[in-house]
Amino acid sequence: MPPSSLPASDRLSSLPHPCVPGYDNVPQFPVKAPLPFRRTIRRHELHQIVPLAETTIYEMEQRGEFPRRFRLTARCVVWDLEEVEAWIEDRKQASRSAKTNSSSGPDVRLRRHRPVR
């Protein structure tokens, strides 16, 4: 019986599980497989990857804090996926180093709105 004709529950149970002995011997997909070409993404795909508002992305681009978009045609604007992924990785590293170097957070007693006493 071909695997596609099996019920979904049987197909899932036949997959190797990380806790099973011998899982390390199962061929895995590479974490970062280099693509033979540079991939670009459109606005919809960008928003799936980076959950920021359009205005925030535009302002960050203008300040040089986010990868710049470029035009493929008069009506098609794209971003380089590799640049966006590198930006995300930089943000992760900055966030992790800020957690180790910073205090517990901002002083909430100094807020203008809803200060905590």
From TrEMBL:
Polar residues: compositionally biased ranges: 95-105
Q: Which InterPro entries match?
A: AlpA (IPR010260), DNA-bd_dom_put_sf (IPR009061), Prophage_regulatory_activator (IPR052931)
Identify the Pfam families for this entry.
Answer: Phage_AlpA
Q: Which residues form a coiled coil?
A: none
Name the segments for region: Disordered.
Answer: 90-117
Protein name according to UniProt: AlpA family phage regulatory protein
Species annotation: Paracidovorax citrulli (Acidovorax citrulli)
